[in-house]
Write a structure and sequence with these properties.
383 residues; alpha/beta; 3-stranded parallel beta sheet; 9 strands; 44% helix; globular; binds 5'-deoxyadenosine; binds FE2/S2 (inorganic) cluster
């Protein structure tokens, strides 16, 4: 099978048949398991000296399908976004959650967790600090916490928009009603992140208790789109039970939804969950899937996630070099950061936000990119 040809077709047509997807996605698993050269290439790069590495360090002449996809995706992102990296200030507003997803550290059955929620004043203070540091998007993320009624949320959203009219507000608050999504949009929210988690209904049910519904989740995404939000979906790479066929369905679903944003990161086990002993996703596969998404949707906003940075010290840099163009550092108050642990060993839970900002600056500069002060909307999106 000529995988390069298939990736070329993907670049040209922005889609593949199911069979072609299966071959392309399966190719990584195959090369990975025989320790293909691309895997060691990436690994070597991950370990190079942080002071001297550059984009060229991961680019050697070794052939591999992963490298081929990474290179192509990086070039596409360069064409669309130049060397500009967008940043989003992530404010984790609450770790209360009514849900019980088997993978997630803030699931309601995690009795070991100290719960917190931020007040409007706390959130405004985070935004103020973030604005000063150059953030022009604030992401309000939290568990599904009944405290944040539409009224409470609309007040917070409109206050942020009023104080910082040049900023975008992104919400990541899980499943809510159409009415609720609509009200928050009307209050000024610009974007909504809701990972679909997996494109396969049966697989979804193995990751979530029966009380959660795949159909409802997908319905929410279509509703958000219809209302006018810039929408982000996404999934975990290497979640328990995930097969190549599931990933094919992920790609098919993403293609159909045509979201403005796609968030993917490796599954990382959390010790207080039913998946505590499951295997974590690999960063090779995460990078590969990121690249395929970039090639399929050239203009999509694609973060190099904190989870990717957690499983590999250079994960976020490599995510950028594999086609990512967004970073989402933590702006939450330092006092609560450790409490928003969706998975074990999450990075940047101890730093001041200013430190994170500087740290990210130098990280992206070292690989030839720059962080910009910009809302960073999807290129062709008009509200
Ligand atoms: N590992 C990786 N990602 C996780 N998420 C939740 N739990 C984990 C985990 N253990 C992701 C989910 C969710 C997003 C907010 O975080 O995909 O949608
Ligand atoms: Fe947070 Fe580097 S990004 S410390």
């Amino acid at each position: 099978m000529d995988y390069e040809k298939l990736i070329d077709i993907l670049e040209r047509e922005h889609d593949l048949s199911e069979e072609q997807w299966r071959a392309v996605i399966g190719a990584q698993k195959f090369t990975g398991s025989v320790s293909g050269s691309q895997v060691s290439t990436l690994r070597d790069w991950a370990e190079v000296d942080t002071e001297t590495d550059s984009e060229t360090d991961i680019v050697d002449n070794t052939y591999s399908v992963v490298k081929y996809a990474n290179d192509k995706a990086r070039n596409i992102a360069r064409k669309v976004f130049g060397n500009r990296i967008y940043i989003r200030g992530l404010i984790e507003i609450s770790n209360y959650c009514r849900n019980n997803c088997y993978y997630c550290g803030i699931r309601r059955d995690n009795k070991a967790l100290v719960r917190y929620r931020l007040t409007k004043e706390d959130i405004m203070e985070c935004a103020k600090q973030g604005y000063g540091l150059g953030y022009r998007t604030f992401v309000l993320q939290g568990g599904e916490d009944g405290y944040y009624s539409d009224e409470v949320m609309c007040d917070i959203i409109s206050s942020i928009k009023k104080a910082y009219p040049d900023c975008a507000v992104t919400l990541s608050l899980g499943e809510r009603s159409r009415e609720s999504y609509k009200r928050m949009y009307e209050a000024g929210a610009d974007r909504y992140l809701l990972r679909h988690e997996t494109g396969d209904k049966d697989h979804y049910q193995t990751l979530h208790p029966d009380e959660m519904s795949y159909d409802n989740r997908i319905e929410c995404l279509w509703t958000l789109k219809e209302i006018g939000y810039q929408v982000g979906c996404g999934f975990m790479v290497g979640s328990p039970g995930q097969s190549v066929d599931h990933l094919v369905k992920d790609m098919k679903f993403i293609k159909k939804l045509e979201p403005q944003m796609v968030g993917i990161g490796p599954f990382v086990p959390h010790h207080e969950t039913p998946f505590a002993n499951e295997t974590q996703g690999t960063y090779e596969q995460t990078l590969y899937m990121m690249s395929l998404i970039r090639i399929m949707l050239p203009e999509v906003l694609l973060p190099a996630t904190t989870a990717l940075g957690t499983i590999n010290p250079r994960g976020r840099e490599m995510g950028i070099l594999a086609g990512g163009n967004v970073l989402m550092p933590n702006l939450s108050p330092v006092s609560v950061r450790k409490l928003y642990e969706l998975y074990d060993n999450k990075i940047c839970t101890g730093d001041e936000s200013a430190e994170c900002r500087n740290c990210l600056n130098s990280r992206v500069q070292r690989i030839g990119y720059e962080i910009v002060t910009d809302r960073g909307d999807a290129p062709s999106f008009v509200r």
